[in-house]
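ok trying this again, last paste got cut off
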Amino acid sequence: MNLKTLILFFCVASLISCVKRSNTDPIPTIAYESFIPSNEDIAYLTINYTDGDGDIFAEEGAKDNNFFAWFYYKDTDGSFKPALWPLVTPNPPGPDTTIYNNRPLAYTVIRPSELSKDQPIKGQITITLVGWRSDSKYKNFKYKIYMVDQKSNKTEEIMTPEIITSF
């Protein structure tokens, strides 16, 4: 093998190693990007996503939720605890008759029309959270989040960093 062939071989090998391959893993991934509260009832949660088969989002008209976010408040001891939401509130409500449950905020996130179906995708999406905390007294909190794609592949559960709000 002469020197020119050897140099050409290493140049081609270097170029091939620099080519970024598409993610074809059918199990989607998500990562926290930001949380912006608009007021006491509405907040915007932005996440980054990748999905090797492009089915992380639901199709138009879907009824099943595919995005789940559990609210964790910062307790007086500094630990984060799951918040309880009223499940059944009698009329008139009473402290001994209200039933509470740890439930997530659950939404159906529809595939944006500009995204191709059945192809690897990655990007960022902002989800509008309505009623984003169980009680306005919680000023320091986190969310545990995951998504489920159309083939029931679940992302890893991620925890946001501590979020602090003034209202």
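PB: full thing came through this time. The chain has one helix and eleven strands.
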